Amino acid sequence: IKAHNLPEDPHYVPDSKFYKLEAILRPWRIPQVSSALLKMGIRGVTISDVKGFGAQGGSKERQGGSEFSEDNFVAKVKMEIVVSKDQVEAVIDKIIGEARTGEIGDGKIFLIPVSDVIRVRTGERGEQAERMTGGRTDLNSAV
Ligand code: ATP
Ligand code: GLN
């Protein structure tokens, strides 16, 4: 995690071996984001259709002048990606590069420490469970 991306306090994000990136993005940008992630060796991704409001929904609400209702929620896709610590910044940069339009409603990324990863099939934990065949670590170690 890049020091210059964090506030002065080094404990701002609790130190962890793994982090989850939870990105709330525009649905129509998802194909572009996921193919870029695939190219960089990200093999494990979970997405869900969600609805939310941020500045984008808020401005609609002000225009309508009505109370907050479900109509103000905007369709988004939540993309969840668990990666090792050293992969966090590259994934953030990639998501921004592929998802950003510069307009209100581009979305947000939340960074969450993850205590452990367990592969159900094998019972592996930690690094062994987080690594994936053909994943980023494999790509980087291939000469
Ligand atoms: P196996 O080798 O047993 O197939 P795997 O590590 O490849 O294990 P899957 O069982 O294929 O994992 O993963 C099941 C689902 O878990 C995926 O479809 C995806 O939604 C989610 N997933 C797996 N790894 C990650 C990850 N690192 N980040 C986010 N979601 C993940
Ligand atoms: N860190 C894993 C690897 O290097 C990839 C994680 C992921 O695809 N979400 O194999």
How would the blueprint of this fold be written?
Blueprint: E1 18-25, H1 30-39, E2 46-52, H2 55-64, E3 74-84, H3 88-99, E4 107-114, H4 126-130, H5 136-141
Antiparallel strand pairs: 1-3, 1-4, 2-3
Helix pairs in contact: 1-3
The site of adenosine-5'-triphosphate has 9 residues, from β3.
Tell me the overall shape: globular
First CA to last CA: what distance? 25 Å
Strand proportion, as a percent range, falls in: 15-25%
Largest sheet: 4 strands, antiparallel
Describe this structure in words.
- By secondary structure, this protein is an alpha+beta fold.
- The protein has 5 helices and 4 strands, in the order E-H-E-H-E-H-E-H-H.
- It starts with 17 loop residues before the first strand and ends with a helix.
- The mean pLDDT is 88.
- Bound molecules: adenosine-5'-triphosphate and glutamine (GLN).
- The site of glutamine has 14 residues, from strand 3 and helix 5.
Provide key terms for this protein.
143 residues; binds adenosine-5'-triphosphate; single chain; alpha+beta; globular; four-stranded antiparallel β-sheet; binds glutamine
Condensed summary:
The protein has 143 residues and is of the alpha+beta class. 30% of the residues lie in helices and 24% in strands.
